[in-house]
Amino acid sequence: MNFEELVDFAASVRGFLPVPEGLALSAHGRRRGRERPGGTWLEVGAWCGRSTVFLGAAARDSGSVLYSLDHHHGSEEQQAGWEHFEADLVDGADGRINTLPTWQRTVADAGLESVVLGLVGPSAVVAAHFSQPLDLLFLDGGHGEEVAWADYHGWVPHLVPGGLLAIHDVFPDPRDGGRPPYDIYRAALGAGFVEDDAVGSLRVLRRSAPAAVLG
Ligand code: MG
User: Fold this and answer.
1) Residue 149: burial class (beta carbons within 10 Å; 0-12, 13-18, 19+)
2) What's the gap in Å between 48 CA and the centre of ligand 1?
């Protein structure tokens, strides 16, 4: 698949990321890839691989790699009885959500197995043992207070000056959605990041040089 076909395919993958926001992710990824070919990118929160393919298409274009991190057991709002629960993703062996097989199928169907590298485990543990500088970071993991801030503090320090930080589910109006993604977005703005773009609830920020102190 060429870039356009991959992006079309991404739009067909099950998931929650609206297409205009996925297209924006692809476009910003492409731009970053042109600035820094062969870079290292990471997304937190993969679910079934929809954002993975939007970003992976752009990563492939620039010879970059995308680490796609998720424990694959769903976040709080994806558990039984919650708003985004999807019963067919439950693993009968232990009754937990397991999106890993679906994610893996998505990446294989997209032909991105040498571009997208899966990381399976708790974000905070992986972040503490990860030493690669990142050129692009997409935060779309759990939206609870504790996990969202852990992702911010665990991953944002890995971003190089000039690197792009994309955050999903940023809602300035509390009636539209939970606070933590908005709060970490505000913290990043206060820590030397500059806003580059806003599409729906997606915000794209750039880390100014030199490395900022996180709020
Ligand atoms: Mg999201």
Assistant:
1) middle
2) 12
- Residues 12 and 157: their CA atoms lie apart, in Å, by 33
Cβ 9 vs Cβ 53: under 8 Å: yes
The crossing angle, in degrees rounded to 10, of helices 145-155 and 180-189 is 30
In a domain, 72, yes or no: yes
| 210 upstream amide cis, omega within 30 of 0 | yes
Which of 28, 71, 72, 143 is labelled catalytic?
143
Average pLDDT, 10 consecutive residues per value, the chain (215 residues): 97 96 98 97 97 98 98 84 82 92 98 98 97 97 93 97 97 93 97 96 90 59
Identify the pLDDT of residue 75: 81
Q: What CATH number is attached to the domain comprising 84?
A: 3.40.50.150
- What does the pLDDT read at residue 215? 59
Look up the domain containing 128 and give its range: 3-207
Quick check: is 143 catalytic?
A: yes
Residue 63 lies in a domain: yes
